């Protein structure tokens, strides 16, 4: 116990320590989701939003709930259905008979972490109710503009196998998501671990984890991420990748400038949580698919030929030459050599 702090052993503002603490605590309940937790951490540290796609029963909503609990974020879940209207998300003014006045009833979007479950079941009008909050960090209710909490993050889930009664997200809505993550079925060995884990403790759930980081520390970690160095060669590499999506013969509309900025912020955070003060080409490569694929609009021929957006991103990454290792580290200050 010697040398330990008196603040419940909360991690420091160091992004790497914060990330390790989140991974370890979530891993007490959920096994095999390390990559998703990494991307959620990156998004949280860079004011991003995440779209989770996967078949039912693979713990997408549980993952979001766990992430909120361990990071100390106020959490609200919205079950999206065709009959939900925008006011059900943002809120409205309600008449109080006891006072004779209208009072503001804030909707579930007023939370640090908002989970829009099965977002593609809501109508486009209702889906768009999230747009202002995701982009502007505020919402307008009957002419009154209200700020959302800080931090603020949306995690939306969708089921890729259902086609009846669902509404595909509009391009503008997809572009608002920093990442689109595909949550796959677990490998057999991981699923066996789950069997053993829940055999030992059938009631294991999100309420069994503890908060391991305070919101103030997350905000401080954001400042550390912002100071990570991105070399000019890395910026050119990002531009080459984004341009390649726009020039690809199977793509009608390539990645937007918002994708370019997503690379800038996300690679900084990935470098920081892995203990580096500068971005390397592997940071860009590792994030390329989750940043780019959902933003691509394929040509009609590509759609009819079942061309995969992921395959296009893989091809782009393989054909664009990354910068050399000697061009990405921060320059040495002139006074360092005496």
Automatic annotation (TrEMBL):
Matching Pfam families: AAA_3 (PF07726), AAA_lid_2 (PF17863)
InterPro entries named among the record's database cross-references: AAA+_ATPase, ATPase_AAA-3, CbbQ/NirQ/NorQ/GpvN, ChlI/MoxR_AAA_lid, P-loop_NTPase
Domain AAA+ ATPase: start-end pairs: 46-187
Example of a GO MF term: ATP hydrolysis activity
Protein's UniProt keywords contain Cell cycle: no
UniProt keyword annotations, A-Z: ATP-binding, Nucleotide-binding
SUPFAM superfamilies: P-loop containing nucleoside triphosphate hydrolases (SSF52540)
Protein's name in the database: ATPase AAA
Organism annotation: Natronorubrum tibetense GA33
């Amino acid at each position: 116990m010697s040398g330990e702090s008196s603040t419940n052993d909360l991690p420091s503002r160091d992004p790497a320590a914060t990330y390790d603490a989140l991974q370890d605590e979530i891993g007490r309940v959920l096994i095999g989701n390390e990559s998703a937790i990494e991307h959620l951490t990156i998004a949280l540290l860079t004011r991003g939003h995440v779209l989770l796609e996967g078949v039912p029963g693979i713990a997408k909503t549980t993952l979001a709930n766990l992430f909120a609990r361990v990071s100390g974020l106020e959490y609200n879940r919205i079950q999206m259905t065709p009959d939900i209207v925008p006011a059900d998300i943002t809120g409205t003014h309600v008449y109080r008979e006891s006072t004779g006045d209208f009072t503001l009833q804030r909707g579930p979007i007023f939370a640090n972490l908002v989970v829009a479950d099965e977002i593609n079941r809501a109508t486009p009008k209702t889906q768009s109710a999230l747009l202002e909050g995701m982009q502007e960090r505020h919402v307008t209710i009957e002419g009154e503009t209200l700020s959302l909490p800080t931090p603020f993050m949306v995690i939306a889930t969708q089921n890729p196998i259902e086609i009846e009664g669902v509404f595909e997200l509009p391009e503008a809505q997809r572009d608002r998501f920093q990442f689109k993550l595909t949550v796959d079925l677990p490998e057999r060995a991981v699923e066996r671990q789950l069997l053993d884990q829940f055999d030992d403790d059938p009631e294991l759930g999100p309420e069994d984890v503890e908060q391991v980081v305070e919101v103030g520390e997350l905000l401080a970690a954001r400042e550390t991420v912002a100071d990570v160095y991105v070399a000019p060669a890395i910026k050119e590499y990002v531009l080459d990748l984004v341009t390649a999506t726009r020039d690809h013969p199977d793509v009608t509309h390539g990645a937007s400038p918002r994708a370019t900025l997503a690379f800038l912020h996300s690679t900084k955070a990935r470098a920081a949580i892995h203990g580096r003060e500068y971005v390397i080409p592997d940071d860009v490569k590792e994030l390329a698919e989750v940043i780019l694929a959902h933003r691509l609009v394929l040509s009609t021929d590509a759609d009819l030929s079942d061309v995969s957006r992921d395959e296009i991103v893989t091809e782009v990454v393989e054909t664009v030459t990354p910068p050399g290792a000697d061009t990405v580290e921060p320059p040495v200050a002139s006074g360092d050599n005496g």
